[in-house]
Amino acid sequence: MTAYALGNLRRPARLDDEVLTYMERVQATLDPFGGRFLVHGAPAREVREGTWDAALVVIAFPSLDHARDWYDSEAYQRLIPMRTRHMTGDVLLIDGVAPGYEAAATAAALRAAQAA
């Protein structure tokens, strides 16, 4: 099942050269694990609810194991400080949903669990 690495990163006023170097090198750390960018820091064009002041990063992986192995890899661990010294934020790894997923089926299961 596809899994994702999500980054909710707050951009500094000016991107440090070290962050730009991180960006130049990160794809090479993703490639061995099948990681590919789906969203990479594009500005939010329309904030429909709440507020948004961060740069969103979404990276897809073939599985959660692939995502974990990438994040824990020596190559990526060496890059992390280049970003974290200059940007704050949150990073998480999360499973996607299976093909054919329906929110209504999940709601039905939750209703049944609450009724029990």
TrEMBL record:
It holds the Pfam family DUF1330. Coiled coil: none annotated. SUPFAM superfamilies: Dimeric alpha+beta barrel. InterPro entries: Dimeric_a/b-barrel (IPR011008), DUF1330 (IPR010753). Residues 3-97 form the DUF1330 domain. This is DUF1330 domain-containing protein.
